[in-house]
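Researcher: Structure for this, please.
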Amino acid sequence: MSPSLGSLPPELTRGIISAIDSQDTLCNLVRTSHALYEITVPFLYEHVALYDQEGGTGCHEFEQLRPLALLLLGRPDLAQLVRHFTMRDEPSTGSITEEMLEKGEPVELLEVDDVFKDTIKAASHNEEEEKQWLEHMAWPDHGDATLALLLPALPKLESLDLMIMDGCTYFEKMMRRAGMREKPFDKQPGFLALKDVMHTFYDEKYGMSVEYIGMFMRLPSICRIFGHRVGSDDGFGGEEDETLAALETASSTVSHVELKDCKLHERDLTHMLRAPKALKTFIYEVGWGHVSYCDMNFRAIGSALAPHVHCLENLWLDFEDRFGPEWHHEMDDTTPIPSFTQFEKVKVLKVAIVFILGNKEFSNQKDWKQSELHGLTGKFPWSLETLHLLHCEDNFELVLLALGDMLEHKERDVPGLSKLVLEGSIRKAKERWNRIVDIIQLGKTKGVVTITVNTAGERPAYEGAVERGWGMDREISWAEGVNALNRYPLDEIVELPC
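Model: Predicted structure, C-alpha cell format:
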C-alpha cells in the first residue's frame, strides 16, 4: 500500500508542501486533516496575492480584499504568517459619491463588522476621521479604506508589491503615520519587518506621483524600494514634492533604489537621494512622454548622488527605449556627466552611452576629439570591475574609438576591469563587426572579457517578449505588470567571428 501524504514524517511532508505554488492545492490540503492543516497553513498564508477577478485593470471591486482583511484582523495568529503581500489591481476609492447620498439615491451599503470598527477607532486621530472612515467602510467597493487597515495588521510582512494610484488617501495616511511614528504607531512601531516595496501603475500613458517614494523611505526597516512609472510634476522647474522635500539627510535605512520608466526633476531627485544613510545600489531608467513632462538634467543625477560617493557599489543609468530617445531640448539638459571617478567603491556600472558622451552630434572625428566630450579614458573609478555600455548604436563609431583608447590605458585608469559588455543594435551594425572584434581582441590582451548583446527589436509588442526582472542582473522578480508595460524581448548574446 502506497503511503499517503498524511502518513509521512512531518519534516518530509513539510518539504513536499513547500514546493507547491498553487494556492488552490494548498487550500485543499488545509481542509484534508488536522495534521496537514498545521503543516500547510504557514505556506498558505506566507504569500498573499490578490488579483482582479475579471482580469482587467483599474478600479475594479476586489472581492477577496474585504473578507481577507476581516479574517486576518480577527486572527492575529494567521496574520503573523504573512511575509509577502501582492496586489495587482488598484484599490478603489469607491463609486458612491457625496452627491448620490445628498440626493437620496438608492445605494448598497454594507454592515461594518466590529473588528473593523475597533481597528478604525484605534487608528483615527479624531472623531470626524473615525466617522468618515466608518462611512467609507460601509461602501462595498472602497478598497483603499480596507487595505489601510489590513497592511499594518501584518507584523511580519517582509515585502509589499502593490499596484497603487494617486488618491488612495487612507493608504497614504497610514504609511505616513508609520513613518512619522504617529498614532496608531506611536506606542508600537509598524512595518518593522518590511524591507522591500514595489509600487507600480497600470496606466500606459500617465505616471503617478513620486510622493510614495518619500513615504516608503521613512519606514523603519526599509532596504529596497522599486518604482515603476513614477514622475515629478510637469513643467520646467515644476513644483517639488512635499513628501520628498521633508525627508531629512541620512534618515532612511534604504540601500537599494530602483526606478524604471520614471522621470524626476532635479529637486525631487536631490531630496530623494539625500535621505539614504548609505546607498549601495541606484538604478534609474528615464521614462518618456506623459510619465512626466518635467525638466531633467544629466549632471544633476551625478550631483544628487554626491552623498553616496563613498558607499555606492552598483550604478545603472539608462533610458526607456520603447519609443526611442525623446529628449526635450527646451527642457532636458543632456550635457554628459563629466566623470564617475568620484564613486570610489562602484564595482558594476551600467550606463547608456548618451550619459557619458552626450546627445550632441559631430560632423567628423576631429571635431569630436577636440571637444570636452571626447573619450572614456579617466572617466571611471579604479574600483570598477564590470562596465556595461548601453545603447551603443546611438554613437557606435565614436564609442568604439573611445573604447580602444580606454583599453590601451586600462592599467592606469581601471586596473580591476575584467568584464566589458556592449549592448545595442549589434545585428544592424555588421559594417562595424570587424572594429568590434578588434576591441574584443584588445580586451583579451588586457585581461578583459568582452560580451556583445543585441537589443534591437520591436518593443514591447514583440514575439517572445517577457516580463523584465529587477536588480542589477534582473535577478529580482515581482508580479507581472499590466498592459505589457514591463515586457521586453529577451536580450541576445551575439558571438562575433574572431
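Researcher: Any notable elements?
Model: The chain is about 30% helix and 15% strand. Residues 98 and 104 are 10 Å apart (CA to CA).
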